[in-house]
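Comment on both lines for my students:
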Amino acid sequence: MASEFDIVIRSGAIMDGNGGRPFHGDVAIKNGKIAEVGKVSGRGKEEIDAVGLSVTPGFIDIHTHYDGQAMWDSYLAPSSWHGVTTVVMGNCGVGFAPIRRSTKDSVIALMEGVEDIPGACLHEGLDWSWESFSDYLTALERRSHDIDFCALLPHAPMRVYVMGERALKLENATQSDIQQMREITTTAVRAGAFGFSTSRMIAHKTLAGDPTPTLRAQEAELMGIALGLKDAGKGFIEFTSDWDAPDTATEFAMVRRLIQACGRPLVLSLNERHHQPGGWKELLDLSGQAADEGLPIRCITPPRPIGVLLGLTGSQNPFAGTRTYRTIADLPLAERIAAMRDPAIRSKIITEDPNEFNTWSLLNRIGFERMFRFTDPPNYAPARGDSISAIALRENRTPQDVAYDMLIDDGGKGFIFGCVVNYANYDLEAVKEMYSRQHVIPGLSDGGAHVAFISDASFQTFLFSYWGRDRGEDRMNIPDLVRRQTREPAQFAGLHDRGVIAPGMKADVNIIDFPNLALERPDMIIDLPAGGRRLLQKARGYAATIKAGQVTYRNGVATGALPGGLVRSH
């Protein structure tokens, strides 16, 4: 007898993305879409037994940076290893279009500094065959992928495209510049961009220390671009800022004016900053009040500390900026370890100024009091007493001495976990409070960026294993977490064909063993263009991931199916 469906998932606990109680049933898939949900009598060409497993929509991550990787790699790992079936890239105002040949190097330098994607990888991995954003989207369609991706128009390259050197010098845009950016925005969104992104963060710099060209963009410029979205009739704004007190209310008032003028949704990043531990509460309240008033605003918050992995195999470590370490930094790892064991070299590295050649501005802001030995299995909520500073105090040593030993242990393959944000009080209570608000979406994984010292594209697995299962009485409702990782970001971004398990929706589905969901230790892999390296972190517990009706992963192993690719805004 001929099969009625392509796939039927049998007897799973279905969490359909709407946040309600799970219900047991079947999910039938045909021609890339969900055909039936409930009791399915017809047979599938493939039958998947989901007894004891949960069935969810594919996860959606609206803050990533796969702008380069999508060009040279069909597998958008590590996000696709963690149940993610759709991502939005081009965040933080950085990306690769529009671009002129004369501005290419400055755009690469910005992406290299802000997102830690090696310039050599970008020079070799991209063919730079485009100029306009529309041309860039067309270039992205040359390759099939394991997941779908949507692109935002990034403010920085557009500003440099229009203003040239004046943009790099942070000069104000003229009315003519603003009009041109407005027109570029409208054209890009009509061509398929999902909106535009901008950054006003001081930490977003090139390796040379130059700030992002968008840092001081005036309200008139941002308003002109926002009105470009209004002209197109679609798209959202991704807005990144430092939100430093006492200017939070002033900055947010501008955000409100942008939303009210263009009528388009806006998402902003929300974190607990260690130098202002309570500052996030004002932004949470301001954004929550605006959402309650009906403004289409969301905050995106990571479920754990944004954590850097500092090590000798990565791009950053606490001594990378010292004069002596730089003389041995390019040696093979074994030779570097041998040199670092030399007492004379050790003494110099430990006592030298770590900022003399520091290429990463956030290193100073972490401090040894929020650096920890990175364990296996990974512990993303370490105790205060396990910090390098606390160990040094107990052992009557300097923090530098303790950190140095951690780096050369295990043949130099280990890491120090440094908490950048969300760990001011050595707990995740701030995250818990943020997630208590309905306008907050989990995310900010930065997948595709910071490839050699951050491994946060595993956020989704941590979200469900830690907050949904391991917090004891404090644990959160898993179906509601599923909603926040599926339907909520889908509806916000304008992806109305996915995010819910229902007939007619795109068949993006996860089959998950939640009791056994776990993160593995990240590994440093050399597989980028030009011999670049990146951290990759796998997970256990994903029995299968289905993208557009095709099984792309079984128990974490790729099947070779590539049904994904660029999604243009509808």
